[in-house]
Specification:
87 residues; mainly alpha; 0% strand
Length: 87
């Protein structure tokens, strides 16, 4: 990306991308391993989205609680949590 477009992504952007790719591919344990100790709201939402597709309620609850601590009015966190398939 930096060679072709002259743009160097930040560490935060790279972390988000890796967590997102691992999460949507079902590699939730690996996604958690590369996540920062104090994830930002976007990373929490990304984990919630991955939990929605994988049905991981326990990890979803954790990501939801973190997201709400960061922004209690985050509508996306509520929507994603409500969509986690618990069956």
């Amino acid at each position: 990306m930096s060679k072709d477009y002259g743009y160097v992504p930040s560490q935060q952007q790279i972390t988000y991308l890796v967590v997102n790719l691992l999460g949507i591919s079902g590699e939730l344990e690996n996604a958690m391993a590369v996540m920062p100790a104090h994830p930002n709201l976007l990373v929490c939402q990304t984990v919630l989205h991955a939990c929605r597709t994988s049905g991981s309620l326990e990890l979803g609850k954790w990501a939801f609680e973190r997201a709400i601590l960061l922004d209690q009015n985050d509508a996306l966190a509520y929507v994603l949590m409500s969509c986690i398939n618990i069956s």
